[in-house]
Amino acid sequence: MNPRLFVIPALVILPAAVFAQTARFQFVDFDDGEYVYANARVVGGLTGENVRWAFTTTHAGKWMPLTWLSFMLDAEFAGRPSRVAYPENAAYAGAFHVTNVVLHVANGLLLFAALRALSGAWWTSALAAALFAVHPLRVESVAWVTERKDVLSAFFGLLAMWGYAGYVRAPGLGRYAIVAACFALSLLAKEMLVTLPFVLLLLDYWPLHRFAGHRTEDSGGPPPLAPLPTVHRPLSTLFLEKLPLLGLAAASSVVGFLAHRAGGAVASLDAIPLPLRLANALWSYLFYLGKTLWPFRLAAFYPHPGDSLGLPIIAASAGFLLIVTALAVWIARRGPWLAVGWFWFLGTLVPVIGIVQVGPQGMADRFTYFPLIGLFVAAAWTARTAAGSSRLRQAAIGAVCGALVAALAVVAWRQTAHWRDGEALFAHAIEVTDCNAAAHVKLAGYHRRRGETGFEIRHLRQALECEPDNSMAHMNLGIAYARQGPSRRNEALAQLRAAVSRRPPDFRPYFNLGQFLAMDEARLPEAEFYFRAALERRPRSIEAWRPDGPMVWTALGEVLARQERPAEAAECFERALQLDPEFERPREHLRELHEGANKGAEARSAGGLYGGAGVVLGGFFGKFQNGRRNSVEFPRDGGYNQRSIISAWGFLPRSRSHFDQSLIRVSRQLNS
Questions:
Q1: What is the DSSP code string of 57-105?
Q2: Among candidates 16, 12, 19, which has minimal Cα distance to 412?
Q3: Angle between helices 122-134 and 7-19 (to 10 degrees)
Q4: What are phi and psi of 435, to 5 degrees?
Q5: How confident is the model at residue 548, as a pLDDT?
Q6: Buried b (16+ CB within 10 A) or exposed e, 312-325
Q7: Which of 286, 335, 340, 495 is the most exposed place for a label (fewest CB within 10 A)?
Q8: Cβ(305)–Cβ(334) below 8 Å
Q9: How many angstroms separate the CA atoms of 560 and 417, rounded?
Q10: Mind listing the pLDDT tens digit for each residue in 199-251?
Q11: 563 neighbors 528 (Cβ within 8 angstroms)
């Protein structure tokens, strides 16, 4: 039996065995809420309005319509599930995980098909595809639902590569259009592959040998599937050939940057100066190389090193990269796969290497999903060269490669298990990284939801020890202190003020401080100030919770009503209803303003301003069921029902009394 018959089944079974466990996993409180389980658009499925939203939104600082559509399609198969508060409440996560796994398995097969079409080398292409499919650095892109954009973008990018092999062997407008269409679809999923035209130029050099006046020595082995092109072209001609693709890449880069900036994800040079970015970029290349060779102690979040990288580390990183690059150029004629693989790795990492800093991380495993293919190609063809024509040597190297793939699969399977839920994920991140403030903040949230306030506070304090300017840690610590009663009220206020003193771009610290201050009648003007500050901040959450979202406008209206400013309050409530016509709270307040204090008091007795669906302290979302928000509200990254806090402090009767008196006066003004 021809052993080649086992290649494709092996490329399916190996990654499926590693990642099938994710079908039982939960979502994680690490962007999965914004993308899926708390996103009304996504769980609403493929409706006309949602499809239009997918192509027009820059939600979460991204423009990725194809990824949004894929999430909506999953929601359709999951039966359009209800939006939920927390990842552990979403029983339908398995459907989204399975799609990621299917796409990743397909990507392994596509990589094999593309490399085989480009080079004609069956076993070498299979080895490169197997390394890609099971390497532990793939885990983050596959096991994290949010990173659907990675696997989906690579799917169409690899299709474009495969199509390019066909175009080179039989040029034609139709074949080129297929390449361009696949590339465009890749960019619609994520702009990561803007470097694909650069990769195609590398492939022109080797294995396609299209460069005029330049020949490389191949390593022998099976002939290509079809004769290689006999017409060699100058570099300028090959570059011009890529111009339409470069145009798509440029357009996607501009749109992507504008989306990131609109979402406030692009760090300013004041926050991270250019020298620090360059230093981190140099170190990141070595970091990724190290994790490729020794894929252990992987984490979901690596803190940015800032100015902690010393000059020796920076100089050593730069020197190493220069030496390897020089060696790749020097050996390019005898080992072109080494040069192509190395420059593939260097070039495709440029968009995410941190020169343009998007997000707080220093580096991320997911960034290597497509770039590492270059190193796997270099490794596979080096093994092929070492094996030569000796059957004994081929068998020995084949056995070593098989053992390596199996070992990587085992490590990847163990790494995947850490993604089973957010608590395990962030506990592992704290274990394998130093001073990981973001992981401490996230883990504190899981303790909070179990009522383990002591553990929550401990993690938040550790986060602040690592990163004293972490606004989310200050905000959540203030909320935790508030829940402990009036004895810690001053500490709570101090932490909430510290959160906004850092001038964070996120609206939640301002909103939470406003909610806290609104409990004291003497501080209503200050509460109003912070609510208005929240409205000026960037979007961070799902659409109903953007800074001009209905909850912020409603809270501002409530403060204005209590200050006897009925016209302004009514305007705020109306603005909230414009944004969310099904939100009952501002509608109820408008009715109370117009019907008078007696009817308003009766209405509030069933909930009212400080009821179970009333003012909340934290970054919340309204819960939707059957397309309508019910009386339960829930937080994101911290937040608690204000009624329980106010009652514990003994402020509720006084605040309600003050509001009742304000309503009486306001109603008289409106009815006069």
A1: --GGG---HHHHHHHHHHHHHTTSPPP-SSGGG-TTHHHHHHHHHHHHH
A2: 19
A3: 0
A4: 50, 60
A5: 55
A6: eebeebbeebeebe
A7: 286
A8: no
A9: 50
A10: 999 999 999 999 876 665 554 444 444 445 556 788 899 999 999 999 999 99
A11: yes
Question: Do 155 and 110 touch, CB atoms closer than 8 A?
Answer: yes
Take residue 401 and report the two structure tokens written for it: 């490669």
User: Which of 608, 623, 614, 603 lies closest to 644, judged by CA?
Assistant: 614
pLDDT digits (tens, 9 = 90+) for 400-440: 999 999 999 999 999 999 999 999 999 999 999 999 999 99
> Which residues are within 8 A (CB) of 563 and not within 5 positions of it... i.e. 6 or more apart?
524, 525, 528, 662
Phi and psi torsions of 640, nearest 5°: -145, 150
Q: Identity (one letter) of the amino acid at 303?
A: P
Quote the pTM value: 0.86
Answer for the pair 562, 554: CB distance below 8 angstroms, yes or no. no
For 148-165, what is each residue's pLDDT tens digit? 999 999 999 999 999 999
**By the 8 A CB rule, do 112 and 380 touch?**
no
In eight-state DSSP terms, residue 36 is: I
Is residue 484 packed enough to be buried (19+ CB in 10 Å), middle (13-18) or exposed (0-12)?
A: middle
Question: Which of 228-242, 294-308, 341-355, 521-535 has the weakest average pLDDT?
Answer: 228-242
Assess contact for 443 and 459: CB atoms under 8 A.
Answer: yes
Q: Give the pairing of strands 361-363 and 616-625.
A: unpaired
C-alpha to C-alpha distance for 238 and 400, rounded to whole angstroms? 38
Count of all residues that appear for the chain in the document: 672
Residues in Cβ contact with 203 at an 8 Å cutoff, skipping those fewer than 6 apart: 118, 161, 164, 340
Decide: residue 254, CB within 10 A, 0-12 exposed, 13-18 middle, 19+ buried: exposed
Distance of CA 512 to the CA centre of its chain: 25
CA angle 614, 619, 625 (to 5 degrees): 60
pLDDT in tens, 357-415: 988 899 999 999 999 999 999 999 999 999 988 899 999 999 999 999 999 999 999 99
User: If you count DSSP H runs as helices and E runs as strands, how many of each does the chain have, helices first?
Assistant: 31, 4
Residue 331 CB-density burial (10 A; 0-12 exposed, 13-18 middle, 19+ buried):
middle
312 upstream amide cis, omega within 30 of 0? no
> Given its phi and psi angles, is residue 44 left (phi above 0), alpha (psi -120 to 50 degrees) or beta?
alpha
Determine the Cα–Cα distance for residues 433 and 238; give it in Å rounded to an integer: 45
Condensed to tens digits (0 to 9), the pLDDT of residues 40-73 reads 899 999 999 999 999 999 888 899 999 999 999 9
Alpha carbon 629 to chain centroid, angstroms = 26
Q: What is the 3-state secondary structure (H, E, C) of 119-138?
A: HCCHHHHHHHHHHHHHCHHH
Map tokens 């190193």 to a residue: 375
How many other CB atoms sit within 10 Å of the CB of residue 9? 9
**Residues β-bridged to residue 634:** 621
